[in-house]
């Protein structure tokens, strides 16, 4: 696991954007795994500003709420079109987001997994992290080998996401999410976390034991996982000085 600590979210985001841009330039038909929430908004803004060619890119989103239509302002469909897709030349047929209105949720999840495989697997997955350590919507105690499926949100996540819906009552309880097993198969995993409120989850994920109680800790078993943090999210890491030193002293060939 590589931990990149920057003074601000903007600085961390800009390095992550560079890595993604590098992939899209080297592999124009890359398969990207995308995340929603407040964390990646600035990342998408940077990617748009870089004016990359998305015409051959395929995307798979991590998750979606069950029971709200794609047109709902808080659906992750709406989020993605608003924050990224409408600003780039991505082909609509190459955009994949779990179907929160599927009549047969298990069948739609199975199909999602098949589509990821048929696309050749995910080259680079962008991740946020919940204050409870979730990645995608894999809440604590999710199987570390889980696949795309239905999950029930924790009270903590419902509280955290109430800010988008106006009230806790309006937050759907059920979601479809890629599994931890699905995420672990991405060739690269880039997790972004900003602010003090993420510090405990990040410290557990990076320096605690690998445990289903903190799903992001599974990334310790991913060969190239990278965490992009600001000072707040890094504030509970025991080895923060070491991570900073490593990043500042990377050999030239290893620099981003
Ligand atoms: P946030 O959510 O980016 O809105 O903090 C992250 C997550 O729940 O994965």
Question: How would you describe the overall organization of this protein?
Answer:
The chain is of the alpha/beta class. The chain has one domain (2-249): Rossmann fold, CATH 3.40.50. Helices cover 32% and strands 15% of the residues. It has 8 helices and 10 strands. The strands form 2 sheets. A 7-stranded parallel sheet has the order 1-10-9-6-2-3-5, sandwiched between helices. Helix 1 (9-26) crosses helix 2 (41-49). The protein is globular and about 50 Å long. The mean pLDDT is 97. The structure holds 2-phosphoglycolic acid.
Descriptors for this entry?
seven-stranded parallel beta sheet; binds 2-phosphoglycolic acid; 256 residues; alpha/beta
Number of domains: 1
On the 0 to 100 scale, the average pLDDT is 97
How does the helix and strand content classify structurally?
alpha/beta
Which ligands appear in the coordinates? 2-phosphoglycolic acid
Strand content: 15-25%
Quaternary arrangement of the chains shown? single chain
Main pleated sheet: 7 strands, parallel
Sequence stretches where pLDDT stays below 50 over 5 or more residues: none
End-to-end gap: 15 Å
Care to give the gist of this entry?
The protein is α/β, with parallel strands linked by helices. The chain has 8 helices and 10 strands. Strand 9 (188-193), helix 7 (199-207) and strand 10 form a beta-alpha-beta unit.
């Amino acid at each position: 696991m590589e931990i990149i600590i920057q003074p601000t979210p903007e600085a961390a985001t800009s390095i992550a954007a560079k890595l993604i841009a590098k992939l899209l330039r080297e592999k124009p038909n890359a398969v990207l795994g995308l995340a929603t929430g407040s964390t990646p908004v600035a990342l998408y803004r940077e990617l748009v500003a870089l004016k990359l060619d998305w015409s051959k890119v395929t995307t798979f989103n991590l998750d979606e709420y069950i029971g709200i239509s794609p047109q709902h302002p808080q659906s992750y469909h709406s989020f993605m079109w608003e924050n990224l897709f409408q600003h780039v030349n991505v082909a609509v047929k190459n955009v994949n987001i779990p179907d929160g209105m599927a009549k047969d949720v298990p069948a739609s999840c199975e199909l999602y997994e098949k589509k990821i495989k048929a696309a050749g697997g995910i080259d680079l997955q962008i991740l946020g992290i919940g204050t409870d350590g979730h990645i995608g919507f894999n809440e604590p105690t999710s199987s570390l080998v889980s696949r795309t499926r239905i999950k029930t949100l924790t009270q903590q996540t419902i509280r955290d996401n109430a800010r988008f819906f106006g009230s806790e009552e309006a937050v759907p309880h059920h979601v479809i999410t890629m599994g931890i097993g699905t995420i672990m198969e991405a060739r690269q995993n880039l997790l972004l976390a900003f602010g003090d409120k993420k510090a405990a989850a990040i410290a557990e994920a990076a320096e605690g034991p690998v445990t289903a109680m903190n799903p992001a800790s599974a990334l310790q078993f991913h060969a190239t996982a990278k965490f992009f943090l600001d000072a707040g999210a890094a504030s509970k890491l025991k080895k923060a000085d070491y991570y900073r030193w490593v990043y500042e002293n990377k050999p030239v060939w290893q620099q981003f």
